[in-house]
Amino acid sequence: MIPSPIADLVPSGTLFEMYPIGLSFLGEYLERHGLKARVVNLAARMLEQPGFNAERFVARQRPGAFGIDLHWLPHCHGSVELARLCKRAHPDIPVIMGGYTASVFHRELLDYPEVDFVIRGDSAEEPLLQLLRTLERGSDLGRVPNLTWRDRASGDIVANPVSYVPADLDHIGRNYAFMVRSAARYLDWRGVRAFKGWWSYPLTAVLTVKGCTRNCTFCGGSASSMARCFGRRGVALRSPPDIAEDVRAICSFTGAPVFLVGDLRQPGDDFAVEVLERLRRVRPRNHVVLELFEPAPDEFFRLAGEALSSFDVQISPESHDESVRMATGKYYSNSAFEETVERALEHGCGRLDIFFMIGLEGQTVSSVRETVGYCARLLDRFGVRVHPFMGPLAPFLDPGSINREKAGEHGYTVLLHSLEEHRNALLEPHWRDLLGYETRWMTRQQIVDVTYEALLELNRVKEASGQITHRTARDIDRLLRENISLLGRFDAAGEIEDSALKAAELERIRRDAGKLRAESDLFKRELDWPVESPRFRYSGLARLALAQRGAA
Q: Over the range 155-187, which residues count as b (16 or more CB within 10 Å of their CB) and which as e?
């Protein structure tokens, strides 16, 4: 694939080689209940070790079952291919899949003979444990909650009810301690990495909630999506003491930033206040990143500044245009948003990341251009501690999201429907042809063109403000223009009639894309929050590795 900006706003690369934090909780839960578990990020190993042979690695394993994540839709190609690899090496070992995307496409996944089971819902810990014990005993699969399976006698696909939807997160345990112990047990410190380059930038995350009270139209984790697809009709919270303990444990072994997943104010201010009070007692040295779904009051930032030595904030207003923002389900004004920025900075926020998306309902080409101008005004008013980012709403509409389920009402045309169509799209060299949608206001090609136009201008704006150096701005400008050129060459190659000449040009494009991909980490550096020294605290890692398995 020709490098693209579709993953520039997440820590992983364009292949999305990052696993969800839920896998570590699954492993911890199984171990706490007497089973051995191991998490391995094969994608990251393949990217960082050119000689790594994934097929040979899988063939050497002898587990009771293979579990494969399909949480994010961009993983749909690799997850099915990995299932095939597992079955080819071990025909008799069951392959189990789970995650948000797997839950939505559970019946289609069972059409692939390599997939034996799908666990649905947002909390697979107990259903997975019950499935493994059921397989061991040879008992009734129909009694396992949240399970979709293939009846061997009839060949029918059976979907058990999604009946396991925990009201809180008290059942999950110390996932980071599990991951460290697992790495030590299997002498595999490479396999546990969250994404390529994690050892250099060991970003960590702490889960605070499952479910959501909001209905952002583009999100597969919105309240309506969770109720419709996963049976969740309310949020499940991690207890404030457990959140604080996770932060303490992370700070014991790394100086990396700690990202608190979910807006602490979502269940109410009392919850946020208690979490911050618990964190004040821990007094973490690391940067702690707070996520906001909407503007927050002065008191929240005052408490954050008192509790945390260093805190950063992340918020996604999506567009400068209030009508576009409200169409996404975010009902706040620019003035309320800007007051939040001002309050956060006044109370010591070290850095405030602001995310704007391209491809939204009601958003036109001219609207995207105006958003860049708004970014410039934010930098003029608040200074370089404010970090605006822009990127395409890509590559697919979230499974189960309002925009996908009610596409016509929201101005979207869904171009990819089945799981197999999404898998084939991931093989397209041009990210325009990977986009699973277009809107009433912009075609796929217009989304591509205005994305590059916006990124080039935002790069210039950041240089002018002093947020990035002239050298960095020059390098980013060059990489973006080379990207545009490669995409143009690819389209032109499609018009070449001579097959030999076309093949030669496509091979040159492939080589040039590889060289460009090797430099694409430059786009990620702007996302990095500060890492406190030392990057790793090996005494803390040793203590976690030797820790006894405990209850949640």
A: eebeebebebbbeebeebbbbbbbbbbbbbeee
